[in-house]
Design brief:
The complex is a heterodimer.
Chain A lengths: L8 E4 L5 E6 L11 E6 L6 E4 L13 E6 L2 E6 L8 E8 L5 E3 L3 E5 L1
Parallel strand pairs in A: 1-9
Antiparallel strand pairs in A: 2-6, 3-4, 3-7, 5-6, 7-8, 7-9
Chain B lengths: L2 E5 L3 E2 L5 E8 L8 E7 L6 E7 L4 E3 L7 E6 L4 E6 L8 E8 L7 E2 L3 E5 L2
The chains are: A mainly beta, B mainly beta.
């Protein structure tokens, strides 16, 4: 199985909005609504910020939102803050009963 | 909330077997949860290794399937990972995580670095 495709890096100024894409295939992203987004700060375990394409867990800022169209999922961070600087990964359940991650995106707040 | 803690050797010799255990607290290993192993090589991205359900069902990454065994110990409320024939490419931080059946790795252990070296 091939990794989902994400941009290597995205940057924005404080207060701006940025969007990270996650492109897969009809066997993963396009097959189910089991797309999850994770935020990972250096030397920390990842944490879920969006599950099932667009669900935001309790405690996660409403500045994070998710969507999906066809084989591409997207994460939008609005009102960018310094603490949003981190690595972001998407993951998807697949038709082979496996999971695949995205290549990861480094978000920089400039 | 569920608490997970990885344990095991931090150094494994090439061609040997990597063995890790994940202790589960504040939840029963026999619940409706899938128990997972994932890893992250230094400076690289996340990779899913495999999952197991207490009933015995499970699946694993096709790229690792021939080398991976994941098992559950209900009496100890823990699950384990064995990865055999390791090479330097298996050097990574290994995480255990829980999936409540919604496609997400909801709770994670802190991770443990395993280095493959002679």
């Amino acid at each position: 199985q091939s990794a989902l495709t994400q941009p290597a890096s995205v940057s924005g100024s404080p207060g701006q909005s940025i969007t990270i894409s996650c492109t897969g295939t009809s066997s993963d992203v396009g097959a189910y609504n089991y797309v999850t987004w994770y935020q990972q700060h250096p030397d920390k375990a990842p944490r879920v910020i969006i599950s099932e394409v667009s669900n935001r867990p309790s405690g996660v800022s409403n500045r994070f939102s998710g969507s999906k169209s066809g084989n591409t999922a997207s994460l939008t961070i609005s009102g960018l803050q310094a603490d949003d600087e981190a690595d972001y990964y998407c993951s998807s359940y697949t038709t082979s009963d496996t999971y695949v991650f995205g290549t990861g995106t480094k978000v920089t707040v400039v | 909330q569920v608490q997970l803690q990885e344990s095991g050797p931090g150094l494994v010799k090439p061609s040997g077997t990597l063995s890790l255990t994940c202790g589960v607290s504040l939840a029963s290993i026999s619940g409706h949860v899938w128990w997972n192993w994932l890893r992250q090589p230094p400076g690289e991205g996340l990779e899913w290794i495999g999952q197991i359900h207490h009933s015995g069902g499970g699946s694993s990454n096709p790229s690792l399937k021939s080398r991976v065994t994941i098992s559950v110990d209900k009496s100890k409320n823990e699950f384990s990972l064995n990865l055999n024939s390791v090479t330097a490419a298996d050097t990574a931080v290994y995480y255990c995580a829980s999936n409540p059946g919604t496609g997400q790795f909801q709770y994670w252990g802190q991770g443990t670095l395993v280095t493959v070296s002679s």
